[in-house]
Specification:
The chain has 83 residues and is mainly alpha-helical. It has helices at 4-13, 23-30, 36-45, 70-82; strands at 21-22, 56-57. The protein is built from four helices and two strands, in the order αβααβα. The protein binds a DNA duplex (13 and 13 nucleotides) through residues 3-5, 8, 22-24, 27, 32, 34-46, 58-60, 64-65.
DNA sequence: CCCCTGACACTTA
DNA sequence: ATAAGTGCCAGGG
């Protein structure tokens, strides 16, 4: 069994293009529906460029945190959503 | 009705 | 085992 972090990364990689999931939804897909707090911490600390962590937003629709730059995150969502 | 704050739980190293 | 960080929920004004 890999670390929950790896599990979350895979769940985020499964997010369809142009769609955004909340940290809670991702945590649920990762196998720990009550670990949405851990998901936020992991994505913000380990935002790998191969992982669309920018598609993961807060339950309110806010972008939340982003290690690479919130501006980049917003731009990516705008382009993907616009497609 | 809207806005803000505090506390809580989960994970990682 | 501990420390640190994050997001969701609830209450109050």
């Amino acid at each position: 069994m890999k670390t929950f972090k790896e599990r979350v990364h895979e769940a985020v990689k499964k997010i369809p293009k142009g769609k955004t999931l909340t940290y809670k939804e991702v945590a649920k897909r990762a196998g720990r529906p009550k670990a949405y707090r851990g998901v936020g911490n992991i994505l913000n600390q380990n935002c790998d460029p191969r992982i669309p962590c920018h598609r993961v937003i807060r339950s309110d629709g806010s972008l939340g945190g982003y290690n690479r730059g919130a501006l980049q995150k917003r731009k990516l969502l705008e382009e993907e959503k616009g497609e």
